[in-house]
Write a structure and sequence with these properties.
Structural class: alpha/beta
Strand content: 15-25%
Largest sheet: 6 strands, mixed
Distance between the termini: 30 Å
Helix content: 10-25%
Number of domains: 1
Number of strands: 14
CATH class: Alpha Beta
CATH topology: Purple Acid Phosphatase, chain A, domain 2
Strand order of the largest sheet: 5-4-3-1-13-14
Radius of gyration: 17 Å
CATH architecture: 4-Layer Sandwich
CATH superfamily: Metallo-dependent phosphatases
Order of helices and strands: EEHEHEHEEEHEHEEEEHEE
Amino acid sequence: MRILFLGDVMGRAGRQAVTEALPRMRSDWRVDFVVVNADNATGGMGCNAAHANALLAAGADCLTLGDHCFDQKDMLQAVEGDTRLLRPINFAKAAPGRGARVFQDARGRKVLVAHVLGNVFMKRAFDDPFSAIDSVLRTHPLGGSVQAAVVDVHCEATSEKMAMGHFCDGRVSVVVGTHTHSPTADAQILPGGAAYQTDTGMCGDYLSVIGMDKTEPMRRFVTGMGKTRFTPAMGEVTLSGLLVETDDATGKARDVRMIRQGGRLEPSAP
């Protein structure tokens, strides 16, 4: 199975780039299942229902959200009505929606997707991400009830993401980090067979400060004072993500490749 994961979609520029490119990426790379993190798809703060629908219509099988999952108020209803939208599994217990679900690809193969928030350096403490994920993985064993499993760990600290990678290794196909918007260069297959990358980066304009127009963040860093709201940068977009090929019998990763398409980060020819 070929699984494509695209990192945090950043604002209108990132959203348009993904919706335009994803059908071609699915076809050219013969992708079986697509997960997109949409936590910043609407103005850089959450994702509304219309923008979620656009990403799904473009070819995403599942959208993960993140710490901004309910910044757009209509998402409170959207996550209840559309099972393709996943909020973090360890969010408030009374929160609507779900944090994990088993999907099927076009050939009927079952794919578990689970989405979890980290605790280190986040704005508030969430429920323990490790016990939350453990419960889901025990219920849906890889190579048993599911043919593939993807975990999106949305957090600040690289150490926490790495710990989650090792914690899930041998029980999932992919563990991928999101949230920091800066892609790491450590894509690998862990000893137990899980494809891993600390952070996929964003689908956005990298001539920015983590996807925001650089003027206001720079002003606040330099002067300590804010003048206007942050707004997403609108320049040329780089699509960042991870492409993983798995073994259908075991669910383990056989190949992993970092994706850089377009914009400033696309690799140049040697």
